[in-house]
Amino acid sequence: MKLANLCWLSSAVLAAQSFLVVANSETEEVRDEAMKDACPVRLESRGKCEEGGECPFQVSLPPLTLQLPKQFGRIEEVFKEVQNLKEIVSNLKKCCHDCKLQADDNRDPGTNGLLVPSTGTPGEAADNRVRELENEVNKLSSDLKNAKEEIDGLHDRLEKLNLVNMNNIENYVDSKVANLTFVVNSLDGKCSSKCPSQEQIQSRPVQHLIYKDCSDYHAIGKRSSETYRVTPDPKNSSFEVYCDMDTMGGGWTVVQARLDGSTNFNRTWQEYKVGFGNLRREFWLGNDKIHLLTKSKEMILRIDLEDFNGLKLYALYDQFYVGNEFLKYRVHIGNYNGTAGDALHFSKHYNHDMKFFTTPDRDNDRYPSGNCGLFYSSGWWFDACISANLNGKYYHQKYRGVRNGIFWGTWPGVNEAHPGGYKSSFKEAKMMIRPKHFKP
Ligand SMILES: [Ca+2]
Questions:
Q1: How many domains does the chain have?
Q2: Domain presence at residue 162
Q3: Domain membership flag for residue 167
Q4: How far is the CA of 386 from the centre of ligand 1 (A)?
Q5: What would the pLDDT profile of 145-200 be if each residue is shown by its tens digit?
Q6: How many angstroms separate the CA atoms of 78 and 182, rounded?
Q7: How far does the centroid of ligand 1 lie from the alpha carbon of residue 220, in Å?
Q8: How far is the CA of 371 from the centre of ligand 1 (A)?
Q9: pLDDT value at position 431?
Q10: Which region, left, alpha or beta, applies to residue 375 given φ > 0 means left and ψ of -120 to 50 means alpha?
């Protein structure tokens, strides 16, 4: 800044010289006038003139005072201002330097808490930072990959859960209910056969018994085949049943009977649910009642058939249970014994065991393209569709066309019928149940 000051002074001197030239020309005029004695400027010759006419002269000037503009008076002020600014800049520079050192220290802390002097250049520090960021990005990428794998795993599990459909759940619940029922019934049977108080109770005529089924009436000496009122489940109301006290020791509760075609069996779900027909002739007892009876005790099933040739045969199954409506009255049929053949377990592809009940208005069968109940005009535990159907149409003689009559697939001669030929029909059919532990 001092240099600039000097430059400015040089400019002032130059200005003064210009002023001097002007003053010089004015001096010539002053000399020509009368004022020459008073003029303090003198021009004098000094020494000899040279050949070309050039002579040395000396000019004497009076003391010179220059009037400068007022602004020049602020130069000192500006100097001070500039000095202040310079100090401020210097402080800022120092501060900036300190900041940089601090930043470097923060970036490279010593492992034991001491500050490690930075030996690297700013470029290396930047590289380190980039590497740190790269590591962070790699870690995040790895985390994302793990999260994706976890999501994929959850998605697979969800798909597997979707495969567990309602049918699987129903099958499971159904089988559990059946198992529990058999356990309870067997305990019940043991108690009634061993418990002496039960015999004492039965021997007292004044004691009121709950008659769960026809075997209880048989137990108190009833031997007449007719209708009786039973209460298989005290929580549900009692109802009338027809008891067969003659066949194979008696004590049978009849759940279905065909003998003359007086009752139409082409019925709805609701009708099969509550039952229909005449207990003394033809009827379906009702799926709800059959469920309660088979739930109350472990039951066996007997089927009696007679054709129009007078042939009488029977099938005996050592287990019979029908689930409730929620389980679509699914049937459990035990092992076969008898003379009519095991038509309910006809083959792998025709098996009525463990099948749901189907009616013309409620398709629960295993035939995917239609309703077996609609096709065969009845309610039954259809497979896809039949090797037996005791609720088929009652034909009074042989018939042609769709085999929608009463049908038992193992009946003698049934397989000899030609596809378009006559089909045999049945004169009588009957389904009845009795406790497994019944003793005539
Ligand atoms: Ca179907």
A1: 1
A2: no
A3: no
A4: 12
A5: 888 888 888 877 777 776 566 566 666 766 776 677 667 666 665 655 555 555 55
A6: 115
A7: 46
A8: 4
A9: 98
A10: alpha
How far CA 230 is from CA of 157, 234, 244, 291, 292, in Å, comes to 50, 10, 14, 13, 11
Least confident of 93-97, 224-228, 278-282: 93-97
Residue 389 belongs to domain spanning: 214-435
Q: Nearest Cα to 331, choosing from 407, 403, 261, 255?
A: 255
**Cβ(231)–Cβ(204) under 8 Å?**
no
CA of 374 to the centre of ligand 1 (A): 9
Residue 3 backbone class (left: φ over 0; alpha: ψ -120 to 50; beta: rest): alpha
**Cα 88 to middle of ligand 1, angstroms:** 97
Ligand 1 midpoint to CA 358 (Å):
9
Write out pLDDT tens, residues 294-340. 999 999 999 999 999 999 999 999 999 999 999 999 999 999 999 99
Q: How far is the CA of 334 from the centre of ligand 1 (A)?
A: 25
Neighbouring residues of 230: CB distance < 8 A, sequence distance ≥ 6: 211, 212, 213, 214, 216, 238, 239, 240, 241, 253, 293
Q: What is the pLDDT of residues 240-262, one digit of tens each?
A: 999 999 999 999 999 999 999 99
- Assigned domain for 416 exists: yes
17 belongs to a structural domain: no
What is the CATH number for 308?
3.90.215.10
How far, in Å, from the CA of 114 to the mean position of ligand 1?
Answer: 83
Packed helices 75-107 and 2-32: angle between N→C axes, nearest 10 degrees: 160
| Cα-to-centroid distance, 189 and ligand 1 (Å) | 39
- The SS3 of residue 193 is helix
The predicted pLDDT at position 49 comes to 75
Q: How far is the CA of 310 from the centre of ligand 1 (A)?
A: 35
- How far is ligand 1, taken at its centre, from the CA of residue 378, in Å? 14
In the reported structure, the alpha carbon of residue 328 is separated from the centroid of ligand 1 by a whole-number distance in angstroms of 14
Helix/strand/coil percentages in the chain, nearest 5: 40, 20, 40
φ, ψ at 76 (rounded to 5°): -60, -45
